[in-house]
UniProtKB/TrEMBL annotation:
Coiled coil: none annotated. GO terms for cellular component: cytoplasm; nucleus; ribonucleoprotein complex. This is RRM domain-containing protein. GO terms for molecular function: mRNA binding. It comes from Rodentolepis nana (Dwarf tapeworm). PANTHER family: FI21236P1-RELATED, RNA RECOGNITION MOTIF RRM DOMAIN CONTAINING PROTEIN. PROSITE patterns: RRM. InterPro entries: Nucleotide-bd_a/b_plait_sf, RBD_domain_sf, RRM_dom, RRT5_SRSF_SR. Keywords: RNA-binding. Residues 30-107, 155-205 form the RRM domain. The keyword Ribosomal protein does not apply.
Length: 205
């Protein structure tokens, strides 16, 4: 009877552990999504909480819907290890009576949050003058005449030599400084890996 009880107890404990885990296996991204955030918390306060608990260093956005906080946030850490530590320590961490959800960002998250409003800095402003992709921000107020461009112009750009870790969202964040970006995509091979090239389309040429 004792042996049976011990086995059942072990199984229940393992089940609880799995249910509390936001992921399985090692993560591959430096970005994490935070959900169930109290609506009245500011991004500065949330960033300070993560800095105190896991030594957060990176950028944070609090997402909005129709101008109001929707309880979601996006964080990018300097390293994958930093993101992994945040998931392990901060998942179900209680803030103002609510237990937040912290997990690795997915492609569905990227698509869902692509056009959301947010509070917080842009990627480039957090990463210094060279921006997230290790390249300077696009020039502003530069017309085709100044650049010596003649003939028809296009609303799309072809970008090459990207770091393979750069996704379409980072590309969009950088190039929106030059105008409204309506679409950005990073080309991938048959296995879903980046080819290091992207296409950016603006609302106007």
């Amino acid at each position: 009877m004792l042996g049976i009880y011990l086995i059942a107890s072990c199984c229940r404990s393992r089940s609880r552990s799995r249910s509390n885990s936001p992921r399985r296996g090692k993560i591959t991204s430096k970005r994490v999504v935070i959900a169930n955030i109290p609506y009245d918390i500011t991004w500065n306060k949330l960033k300070q909480i993560f800095r105190d608990q896991v030594g957060f260093s990176g950028y944070l956005r609090l997402m909005k819907t129709n101008g109001r906080p929707n309880g979601m946030g996006l964080m990018e850490f300097k390293t994958i290890e930093g993101a992994e530590k945040a998931i392990e320590k901060m998942h179900r961490y209680e803030i103002e009576g609510r237990r937040i959800i912290v997990r690795e960002e997915t492609l569905r998250d990227q698509e869902r949050m692509a056009n959301m409003e947010f509070d917080g800095p842009t990627n480039a402003s957090m990463e210094g003058p060279m921006g997230q992709m290790g390249m300077p921000p696009p020039p502003q107020n530069v017309g085709p005449g100044i650049m010596g461009v003649r003939g028809p112009i296009t609303d799309s750009l072809y970008v090459s030599n990207l770091d393979y870790s750069v996704d379409w969202r980072k590309v969009k964040d950088i190039f929106k400084q030059a105008g409204r970006v309506v679409h950005a995509t990073v080309k991938q091979d048959d296995e879903g890996r980046s080819k290091g090239v992207a296409v950016v389309r603006f609302e106007h040429p």
